[in-house]
Design goal:
Length: about 120
């Protein structure tokens, strides 16, 4: 698992999620604590980057799904939780351990995967 820098604790905003690792993860700061999650809302896999963080709640900027910013749990529903990543703060520097990135796929592979999932209905 690679470790990536999220910058300095004081440089992280407390009011919104910030992208790290080419957008694969989002970090949120609540007070002096930092939490990291997969940058993907559970609703429609939209990015959580830029989502509002207020009163310990991260809100998806697209469809407003709300998550406890400290646990990743979906507000109001048990069992739904964002995929979280370990965070370390040492001397004010924040690092996050991320899973290895998925292997790169060719355009052909992406189109074939999309075609397999496509539902034409009654066409």
């Amino acid at each position: 698992m690679p470790t990536v820098s999220a910058g300095d604790l004081e440089g992280l905003p407390t009011d919104r999620g910030v992208a790290i690792a080419d957008g694969r993860a989002v970090v949120v700061r609540v007070g002096d604590e930092v939490f990291a999650y997969r940058n993907e809302c559970l609703h429609q896999a939209s990015p959580l980057v830029g989502g509002l963080v207020k009163d310990g709640v991260l809100t998806c900027p697209l469809h407003f799904w709300r998550y406890d910013a400290t646990t990743g749990a979906k507000c109001g529903e048990s069992g739904l939780r964002l995929e979280s990543y370990p965070v370390k703060v040492v001397s004010g520097s924040v690092t996050v351990r991320l899973p290895d990135p998925p292997p790169a796929r060719s355009m052909r592979e992406m189109l074939l995967a999309h075609a397999r999932e496509w539902n034409r209905g009654d066409a």
